[in-house]
Amino acid sequence: MGLTACLIWVDEMRIDVFTIFPEAVGEMTTLSVLGRGQQNGLLDLRVHDLRMTATDAHKTVDDKPFGGGAGMVLKPEPVFGAVEASNPPKPLILLDPGGERFDQKKAAELADLDGFSLLCGRYEGVDERIRNSLVDEQLSIGDFILAGGEFAAMVVIETVARLVPGVLGNQSSSTEESFDDDLLEYPQWTRPSDFRGLKVPETLVSGDHARVEKWRLAMAIVRTSELRPDLLERRGVSKEELAVLDEFEISIHDRFVSE
Predict the structure, then answer these.
(1) How far is CA 231 from CA 177, 218, 219, 226, in A?
(2) Is 198 helix (H, G, I), strand (E, B) or coil?
(3) Which phi and psi angles does 35 have, rounded to 5°?
(4) Strand locations in the chain, DSSP E?
(5) Long-range contacts of 24-32 (CB under 8 A, 24+ apart)
(6) Which of 35, 116, 154, 166 would give a disulfide with 30, using CB separation of 3.0 to 4.6 Å?
(7) How many CB atoms sit inside 10 A of residue 47's CB?
(8) Torsion angle, CA of 49/141/138/184, rounded to 10 degrees?
(9) Regarding the domain delimited by 194-256, which CATH topology (the fold level of the hierarchy) does it fall under?
(10) How far apart are CA 112 and CA 245, in angstroms?
(11) Quick count: other Cβ atoms within 10 Å of Cβ 10?
């Protein structure tokens, strides 16, 4: 019987970033997971300078706000021009404090796309015409203030890239991390098994892989209940999971139990 070769074609995910600091963002995208993803043809990361279509001698991208006030605002002309000259993948997402809160669920949604683009805000914000007539949506990585959206862009890019098949190499790595199924990741140990009298839990060195998986689930539930009870209240704990907790003689508060 002959053997038939099967070739699986994997499309690159394209992510475009618009920023006034293209060198800084470009350098970060070459590191670690992102660098390997590009080398392996899984990620196509393109960084664009917002000054590329600015027409004045100083390549100005900002101006004082109408009505007065502190700070500067990103102008519409160079931003619209840079985006239109690049034909980036949609959606175009503005990184902005008023945007939808970025989380693992949103990362998974973006990872299912062929690509998307990020616009890094700067100064006191962007001209409202950019927000209303150019971008498709807005994202925020948290309720705090950054000087600009560059670091926020890197948070989004790395979180999404880890979910692209093949980028991590071992795909189980991305499905056994914090926030998978709204649980924090279980605690981890490595060699030596006894360090200064501090020993690794017996279950982990027992060789019983099925029991190890149950123990990890139990520990993830416990850790989430202690550190992020809001996640567990939203998610709940099923009857099957309660049985696993009982197996290890662990109890949790009734408010976490699913009805």
Answers:
(1) 15, 15, 15, 10
(2) strand
(3) -65, -45
(4) 13-19, 43-49, 62-63, 73-74, 92-101, 115-120, 137-140, 194-195, 198-199
(5) 24/150, 25/120, 25/150, 25/153, 25/154, 28/154, 29/154, 29/157
(6) 35
(7) 22
(8) 130
(9) Trp Operon Repressor; Chain A (1.10.1270)
(10) 34
(11) 11
Under 8 Å CB-to-CB from 93, ≥6 apart: which residues?
99, 116, 117, 118, 119, 135, 136, 137, 138, 139, 156
Beta bridge partners of 198: 195
Angle at CA 25, nearest 5°, toward 20 and 26?
Answer: 110
Token pair, residue 245, equals 């907790």
Q: Among 115, 128, 142, which residue's Cα sits nearest to residue 76?
A: 128
- As averages over each run of 10 residues, the pLDDT of the chain (259 residues) reads 44 95 95 95 98 94 92 95 98 95 96 98 92 97 93 97 90 57 92 95 96 96 95 95 96 90
- Going from N- to C-terminal start, the domains of the chain cover 13-161, 194-256
Beta pairing partners, 73: 63
49-53: Cβ within 8 A, 24+ apart? 49/19, 49/20, 49/22, 49/82, 50/18, 50/19, 50/20, 50/74, 50/78, 50/79, 50/82, 51/20, 51/78, 51/82, 52/78, 52/81, 52/82, 52/85, 53/77, 53/78, 53/81, 53/82, 53/85
State in words which class domain 13-161 has. Answer: alpha beta
pTM for the model stands at 0.85
